[in-house]
Fold this protein.
Amino acid sequence: MTSPDTTDTPGTPGTTDTPGTTDAPGAPASPDNATARTVTDIFQPRNVLLIGMLGIGLAAAGHWTGLLWGFLGALCAGLIPAGYIEWERGRGTWGDRHVVDRTKRAPIFFVILGSIGTGSVVMVLGDAPTGILVAMLALWAMTVVLLAVNTVWKISVDAAVASAVVALLAAVHSPWWLLGYAMTLAVCWSRVALGYHSVAQTVAGASLGAATAGAFLLI
C-alpha cells in the first residue's frame, strides 16, 4: 500500500506525489537502491504488523494466550489487507504491491478499516486484554487519518506502520522498545531512496504512527 516505481508530476493521476527521479527501466540498480529495496521489502507493513502485534498481544496478556490475540490483530491489520492487494494484483488492477495512483488507494483503506473493525469487535466479545484492543483501535483511528490525508497528499503508510508498531510496543511493554525507531528511520530512508516518497511524506507518516500510542493515555 505504498508508492510506485516511477515518479512524475505531483498530483497527476498514475504518478507519485514525490519529487525527483528513479532509475530508468532496465537500468542496473545502484548499491544504495538495492539496499533500500531490501529494507523496504523486509519491513513492509504486513511483516512489521505480524511481529509487532504478536509482541503487543503477548505483553498485554502477560502469557502465551496473548499470542492468539496478537495473531488476530496481525491478521486483521496486516495479512488480510495484504491478501486483498495480492487479489487485486491477480486481477490486473495493480502491477505490484506498490499502488501507483494515489487516487486508487481508497479501497485498500476501506478494507483495512473493515478488517480492523471486525477484529476489534471479536476482541471485545472475547474479552481480549485491554492493551491489544487499544492497539487495534489506535490503528483503526490511524487508518482513518491516512485515508483522509491520502485524498490530497501521498503520506507514507510504510513509515506510519513502522512508527506505530514501535510506539505501541513501547506503550504496552517497555520504553526500551523506542530503540526500534532505528528500524523506522531505515524504512523512511528506504522510501525516499527509492523515490517512492519525499522526506516530508515519510516524516508525516512516522509522526502519525507515533501519535497512535497516545491512545494509551486515555485508559
